[in-house]
Write a structure and sequence with these properties.
- The structure holds 2 protein chains of 2 kinds.
- Chain A has 2 domains: 2-158 and 219-361, ABC transporter involved in vitamin B12 uptake, BtuC (Orthogonal Bundle); 159-212.
- A two-stranded antiparallel sheet of chain A has the order 1-2.
- The longest helix of chain A is centred in the last third of the chain and has 27 residues, at 256-282.
- By secondary structure, chain A is mainly α.
- Helix content of chain A is 76%, strand content 1%.
- Chain A starts with a helix and ends with a helix.
- Helix content of chain B is 32%, strand content 26%.
- Chain B is built from 17 helices and 24 strands.
- A 6-stranded mixed sheet of chain B has the order 6-9-10-3-11-12, sandwiched between helices.
- In chain B, helix 15 links the parallel strand 21 (426-430) and strand 22.
- Classes of the chains: A mainly alpha, B alpha/beta.
Chain lengths: 363, 507
């Protein structure tokens, strides 16, 4: 039984090693600094949205509107900049606040009217998609006026200077050593050593290309924030309690409505941030930005061990799940796999992951 | 027994990794006999039943099972059913959305030309109900039936399959007194028809009313098989616990102090209903006092507690004061903050997050006290959890264990611990000892004593009159949402409590 649990906990790591092994064997380009850097930028949007989705799934909800929202919010910012000549920071801020308000509204409807999240966010998926196409008038709206750069376009094109990359790695290693509690001194040293080494290796690899990409820094900050939120705050504890047994949570004095609405508000912020990064990565708002991203986010959660019924999962698992999904797409693109087969492969991997998880969690 | 037993288990030993769940258990059941199985939680009753019903397949244990003299090797529940053995579990296996008749024939629907023959489903169901004098409409939706009626449907479902042996696991745990009486009548009737029954219940009064013989298990072994006629309750308890229990209800009254909770003229209605369900309820609970509430199921006892706690209904009129301060419309969240706590009747549904560890559940209602700045103080949390768990003597290897895997008594202690960590001054306990064994019951009673000794007020709802009389300092009886009588501890007898529960004595 102990072995089974260990296998379940390690299965995302094993799957990731397998995927990387296969791609590395099939193409020499997969493990180059240039491609790894691309992979990291692609990962950052998938993983960021998945982290938000994780906070929604934990209390047993779901957000199907996230992908459409990514397109819409990115589009709102682009349109404000290009067609209304707003400065980029103001446009981003306004779009961000709109997203938080809209998601809070959806959360309130779901909680107060006792509507299933599935239905309300499915409605959101369609409405936001329609609004998105209205806002950009079915055209292509760039994130920055022809050839120039702004805060918006820099989101995915800025790389940290090499020295800053190393400094950040050092800061992260120090942060880990400072916060991680490990009573056994031998293991403590081993853990610190491994983490520090991994961080420096990462910075080194990224510096072989252009440096540590800004999206990775944003993702890292988000991952730390979600980890702290779920492990060290009342809010996080309540998310697990609601997902585990909502009735008992109510009777235990958990402010269920406020907590769930709060989770949706955070999701709004995450959707906005993902929207900016995803649109910036495409260079412009086009009708397909964000399409099906909600499903990748759900898939990343599930592959990373989050229970769709709620109450179980970790942020680290979700990151791994997202890395698996992003690696799969990246590798297949490198191999020039036809889009139809990319869809099929992603679907199969998702089903396989869930099947494995149910098999291994059976006592 | 001169007749050949219909079911016999001999020298049964069952090992689960790490423990011996049963060791050398011998048990037999005569045709037309009701044989009670008693023992504390973890004594091995469930394991034995799982074996007899084919859930633990042949080969996973040592020893021999025989049915009517022939060796039985059940590989599955279906095998046991074929041999005429049916189990009625604590959690009913009925589909709530189906009618009673549909449930009776679930999985064995009679067909004509490949389609379900509904006429014979309903015809045969009606005949079956009539044969046993059960007044249930075969077309009634199962979820609309009472728990007792649902239980009868389940029993008849087993009998429809020509079962000769019924195994009933805590069948009366969720039944009202009337429903229990009906069930007992039917079991006696079945005995006359030659159907044997293995009966498991924590309620020894029932055991003594029904059983022909009583087998006591303790720590996986048979301690004794007793003739009902030649033994008594205290002997059975002694065998179960393995020591003498002097006082089943060790209430230590403390001098009542100032009034902590005052309810006056309370009228409250269920969610959408305009009519009051709780009518003109007034009472007070003082520091150091246990106020007992009795009454039949549906009299409004749980609703009263839930309403005051902010989890049921709408207040029409009346006032509630907690420690002298008016308590308006509360939610469980604000009620707990104000010092009012509730331990609900259904602990698995309302009390615990079963998939999470003991520690998670213990601190869930007191996280505000365990927060420093924005973040939880995990060290403080774990030390508080450990203190509480050891004060209540929660038995588990460590606090990381899943709550869902604990025994009923330990689960109840975790719920109590969670509530107590919120440091309430008035504690509502709704059926706090339901489905837990004698030893754990007494521990719960000792917790009640400790609470009142430290100046808290306890409001106790119980369906078991001996418990209500034994543990309360004052008893109020509810009938039809109204307080029908109040008794001081000395005045209360089973007779006048029951009369008040039926609404006959009003004062």
């Amino acid at each position: 039984m102990e072995n089974k649990k260990l296998l379940r906990d390690l299965s995302p790591v094993i799957a990731l090693a397998l995927i990387w092994g296969v791609f590395a064997a099939l193409t020499p380009h997969f493990l180059t600094p240039r491609n790894l850097s691309m992979l990291m930028i692609e990962l950052s949007t998938t993983a960021l949205l998945a982290l938000g989705m994780f906070l929604i799934i934990l209390p047993g909800h779901i957000d199907l509107s996230a992908g459409s929202g990514v397109g819409l919010i990115g589009g709102v910012a682009s349109v404000l900049i290009i067609q209304h000549a707003w400065p980029a920071p103001a446009a981003l801020l306004v779009a961000f606040l709109i997203a938080m308000a809209v998601w809070m509204g959806m959360g309130s409807v779901i909680v107060k009217q006792k509507m299933p999240a599935f239905i309300i966010t499915l409605g959101g998926l369609l409405v936001f998609k329609g609004l998105f196409w209205l806002v950009i008038r079915n055209s292509t709206v760039p994130v920055a006026p022809g050839g120039s750069w702004n805060l918006y376009s820099l989101l995915t094109t800025y790389y940290l200077p090499h020295a800053a990359g190393y400094a950040l790695a050092a800061a992260c290693a120090a942060g880990f050593a400072w916060t991680r509690e490990q009573p056994d001194p031998e293991r403590r040293f081993l853990e610190r050593f491994t983490v520090a080494q991994a961080l420096f290796l990462f910075a080194f690899l990224m510096n072989q290309f252009r440096g540590v990409p800004l999206p990775v820094v944003i993702l890292g900050a988000a991952a730390v924030a979600v980890t702290v939120l779920t492990r060290l705050t009342r809010f996080g504890r309540y998310l697990y309690a609601i997902g585990g047994n909502e009735e008992a949570a109510v009777m235990s004095g958990v402010p269920v409505d406020r907590v769930v609405i709060g989770a949706y508000a955070i999701m709004g912020a995450v959707v906005a941030l993902t929207g900016f990064m995803q649109t910036a990565y495409s260079g412009a708002s086009t009708t397909t930005v964000g399409e099906l991203m909600e499903l990748d986010a759900v898939a990343a959660c599930v592959i990373g061990g989050t229970s769709l019924k709620g109450g179980r999962g970790t942020a680290l698992g979700v990151l791994f799940g997202a890395l698996i999904m992003a690696s799969l797409l990246n590798g297949m693109t490198l191999l020039a796999v036809a889009p139809e087969f990319k869809f099929i492969a992603r679907g199969l991997v998702l089903s396989l992951a869930v099947w494995l998880d149910t098999r291994l969690s059976r006592a | 027994m001169s007749r050949e037993p219909i079911l016999r288990a001999e020298g049964i030993t069952k090992r689960v990794p790490g423990v011996v769940a049963l060791s050398g258990v011998t048990f037999d059941l005569a045709p037309g006999e009701i044989h009670a199985l008693c023992g504390e939680n973890g004594a091995g009753k469930s394991t034995l039943i799982k074996l007899l019903s084919g859930l633990h397949a042949h080969g996973s244990y040592e020893g021999e099972l025989t049915v009517a003299g022939r060796p039985a090797r059940f590989r599955s529940v279906a095998d046991a059913e074929k041999a005429g053995i049916a189990v009625i579990c604590q959690e009913l296996a009925l589909v709530p959305e189906m009618t009673a008749a549909e449930n009776l024939f679930l999985g064995a629907e009679p067909t004509r030309a490949g389609l379900i023959d509904w006429a014979s489903v309903y015809g045969e169901s009606k005949a079956l109900f009539e044969r046993f004098g059960v007044r249930i409409d075969p077309r009634a939706r199962t979820s609309d039936l009472g728990t007792g009626q649902q239980q009868l449907v389940e029993i008849l479902k087993a009998l429809r399959k020509d079962s000769r042996v019924l195994i009933l696991d805590e069948p009366t745990a969720a039944l009202t007194e009337t429903e229990t009486a009906v069930l007992i009548g039917i079991l006696k009737d079945l005995r006359r028809r030659g159907i044997s029954c293995i009966y498991i219940s924590h309620r020894l009064e029932e055991v003594f009313e029904l059983a022909d013989r009583i087998t006591v298990l303790r720590d996986g072994s048979t301690v004794a098989t007793l003739d009902r006629a030649k033994t008594d309750v205290s002997a059975v308890i002694r065998h179960m616990v393995g020591r003498e229990i002097k006082d089943l209800f060790p209430r230590r009254a403390s001098a009542p102090g100032k009034t902590l909770l005052r309810v006056s003229g309370l009228n409250a209605a269920a969610g959408g209903s305009p009519r009051a369900f709780l009518k003109d309820v007034s009472f007070e609970a003082r520091a150091g006092e246990v106020v007992g509430f009795g009454g039949l199921m549906g009299a409004g006892r749980s609703e009263l507690l839930m309403h005051l706690f902010g989890a049921w209904g709408r207040r029409l009129s009346g006032t509630v004061e907690l420690m002298g301060v008016p308590l308006g419309a509360v939610t469980p969240e604000t009620a707990l903050e104000r010092g009012l706590a509730l331990v609900t009747e259904d602990r698995r549904r309302y009390g615990l997050v079963l998939e999470h560890p003991i520690s998670f559940n213990l601190s869930l209602s007191s996280l505000k006290k365990l927060t420093a700045g924005l973040l939880l103080d995990l060290r403080l949390e774990s030390s508080r959890n450990r203190e509480q768990a050891s004060a209540l003597r929660v038995k588990a290897p460590d606090l990381g264990v899943r709550v869902g895997g604990l025994s009923g008594g330990n689960q109840q202690k975790v719920v109590l611990g969670r509530v107590l960590m919120a440091e309430p001054s008035v504690i509502f306990l709704d059926e706090p000892t339901r489905g837990i064994d004698v030893g754990a019951k007494i521990e719960v009673y000792e917790i009640i004593n400790a609470l009142t000794a430290s100046g808290k007020a306890v409001v106790l709802v119980s369906s078991e009159l001996p418990e209500l009389m034994g543990m309360s300092d004052r008893i109020l009886m509810l009938h039809d949402g109204r307080v029908s009588a109040e008794f001081a501890k000395a005045e209360a007898t089973q007779e006048n409590l029951l009369a008040a529960a039926m609404g006959r004595a009003r004062n």
